[in-house]
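Tip: read the tokens left to right.
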């Protein structure tokens, strides 16, 4: 029995996506930058994928730059825009709960002499517009605020933030990685200057993503030498990955509405059963403004890591409150920003469902979780 409840970390590759990708690992292996027939044929497929992706994101294909994923897209956009627009200013605003590929980069930029502000969140996990207004300055170049958080799933009021940013004459970037599978997002209607997306979060392959740029705004290139992607990001194309991303996005967008409904029903059932069977749990972040597949739960007085390991031994795969990478065992800065006390920081589990999670999966999880929590509590030195 295997129940995978770690879909914010990565998702299962869709069968149709794999099928669409395979020819590019077999007979259609030519480099799309080559001038011969097979190369040019693949170049047409590359550009067709770009068009389809742009259409599904409701923008134009000249705004799509292919990358190896969203960490790369976030780095490219934020560093590239800040470095290229120093005549405009040196001020960057990010939220206090951005993914490490934004958060750590912002800290690095600060060390290098840029002026960085970290917009706090309230105890619901949402940034406050009034606080944001106060941070905007004349020399604010860029604001980077994610649409939805990877740990607690809370959704930020980006429409309002974009409007205020534009009125201030600054640029806006949003990390859309977690939101794209469930939220109806139109890049052009939102008036987003920059955005980042990663295929493996919506049943596409790993190692491919998109930086959405505005070709009218100055940005330094990420990789120099070769000239691919309008000179912004050189390197031989990952065509199989790009075709896979395009197919996965097409499927995800066409099923978004039904997936959102289905996943939310299962998630709400999960929460109801959790509250019934393990009464002293707490939900981290507000439930209302939250992605439908996320539950981040605090189990009073028990180590999250212990729960995770015991669940894993029963075939149930989850993550603790900290980042997508278990390599970093520091307490989660997202949960700290939410205002959790020191003793509460290590008692959290993130459950992230997928469109394939069933009620039976949840029942099995609850049955095991109840036993695990009871047992761990009986050992706990903290009473
Ligand atoms: C919100 C968010 N941004 C960025 C990333 C990085 O994406 P990638 O794995 O494509 O580098 C992730 C995933 O780990 C994420 O959840």
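Filled-in amino acids:
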């Amino acid at each position: 029995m295997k129940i995978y409840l770690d879909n914010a970390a990565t998702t299962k590759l869709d069968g149709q996506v794999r099928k669409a990708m395979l020819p590019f690992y077999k007979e259609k292996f030519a480099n799309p930058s080559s001038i011969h027939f097979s190369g040019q044929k693949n170049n047409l497929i590359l550009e067709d994928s770009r068009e389809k992706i742009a259409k599904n994101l409701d923008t134009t294909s000249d705004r799509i730059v292919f990358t190896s994923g969203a960490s790369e897209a976030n780095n490219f956009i934020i560093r590239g825009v800040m470095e290229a627009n120093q005549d405009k200013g040196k001020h960057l605003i990010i939220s206090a709960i951005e993914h490490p590929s934004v958060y750590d980069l912002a800290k690095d930029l600060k060390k290098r002499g840029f002026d960085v502000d970290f917009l706090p969140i309230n105890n619901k996990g949402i940034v406050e517009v009034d606080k944001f207004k106060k941070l905007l300055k004349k020399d604010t170049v860029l604001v980077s605020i994610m649409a939805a958080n990877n740990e607690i799933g809370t959704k930020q009021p980006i429409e309002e933030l974009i409007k205020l940013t534009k009125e201030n004459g600054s640029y806006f970037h949003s990390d859309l990685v977690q939101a794209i599978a469930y939220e109806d997002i139109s890049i052009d209607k939102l008036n987003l200057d920059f955005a980042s997306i990663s295929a493996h979060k919506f049943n596409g392959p790993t190692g491919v993503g998109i930086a959405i740029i505005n070709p009218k705004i100055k940005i330094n290139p990420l990789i120099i030498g070769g000239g691919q992607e309008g000179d912004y990001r050189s390197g031989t194309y990952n065509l199989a990955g790009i075709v896979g991303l395009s197919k996965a996005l097409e499927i995800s967008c066409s099923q978004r509405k039904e997936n959102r409904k289905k996943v939310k029903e299962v998630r709400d059932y999960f929460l109801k059963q959790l509250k019934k069977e393990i009464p002293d749990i707490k939900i981290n972040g507000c439930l209302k403004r939250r992605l439908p597949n996320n539950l981040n739960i605090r189990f009073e007085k028990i180590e999250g890591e212990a729960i995770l390991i015991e669940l894993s031994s029963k075939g149930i795969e989850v993550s603790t409150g900290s980042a997508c990478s278990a390599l970093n065992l520091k307490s989660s800065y997202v949960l700290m920003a939410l205002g959790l006390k020191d003793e509460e920081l290590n008692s959290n589990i993130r459950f992230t469902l997928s469109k394939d999670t069933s009620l039976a999966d949840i029942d099995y999880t609850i049955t095991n979780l109840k036993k695990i929590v009871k047992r761990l509590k009986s050992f706990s030195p903290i009473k």
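The CA atoms of residues 147 and 156 lie 5 Å apart. The longest strand covers residues 294-299.
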